[in-house]
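#struct-queue
[09:14] JT: dropping the first one here, sequence first, then the structure tokens:
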Amino acid sequence: MPKTFDARTKWSTCVALQEIRDQGPCGSCWAVAATAALTDRFCIATKTQFNGHLSVEDLLTCCCPCAVSCVNGCQGGYDDEAWDYFARTGICTGGDYKSKEGC
């Protein structure tokens, strides 16, 4: 193991690794964290062929209690259920809330 490691330096061209996403007043840390981690993994695994953002808003609004037990929107959710959602349904691209980035 190296004494130090900084993913931002190792994969400096992955734009999402250079940012800290803001959840604002919404209790969406579970969704922001899971989506950011998957975004970073896609960038790294594809050697920056994918170098954008995945949609936290998609996860917050589509991963509903009727489908799985992962979400109560801004009132919290479960990151492990978010990963199940990604595997089961996928997730669309998208930037910060109301940015109109992505699909």
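[09:21] JT: and here's the second one, same format:
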Amino acid sequence: MNETFVCGTCGKSHVGPLTDHGYKLPDEVWAIPEPQRAERAKFTADLCQFEGRYFIRCILFIPFTDGSGNFGWGVWVNVEPAVFDRYLALYEADGSGEPLHPGRLANVLPAYDEPLGTKVAIQFGSSTQRPTVHLPPDAESKLALEQRQGIGSSRYHEYLTAVSALRSAQPSMPLRDG
């Protein structure tokens, strides 16, 4: 039996298991009423500026332990202006050779106790890949442990339940082209 899911962006059913969930905007920008959002913040699918702060859309991968692949959380990371400018300079180039850049999570993930502003590092990718998010190697939060150790099928099903509840609050954006 083929698994399917309904895409939060296009509303169509797609074949395969749901293996990612992406936020359209940083939580505090999404919380602005829609008529005012475009007046107060500048944003695209990958970049956001709001009240003197800068955000980059990234992917935080959690590996599966019961098989190959990952679950990808499409999160926004608050970065310093210099990191934002560097990302813009490399936007259409391969930035994967760049060192890790510091940032802070700008979305709250369900089933985790990570608050907004949790310290992370981002690794730029190629021109066709979003940057990836890495929690500090010494972090002991559930999210950091699961990023290092992976999740099994029961935890994956907890993600699916949490994501279903989120879709009405902040519809997802695709993490990958196609």
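[09:30] RK: nice, looked through the second one.
[09:31] RK: The beta strands are 4-6, 13-15, 20-22, 41-43, 47-50, 53-63, 70-79, 101-105, 119-123, 132-134.
[09:31] JT: good to know. The longest strand covers residues 53-63.
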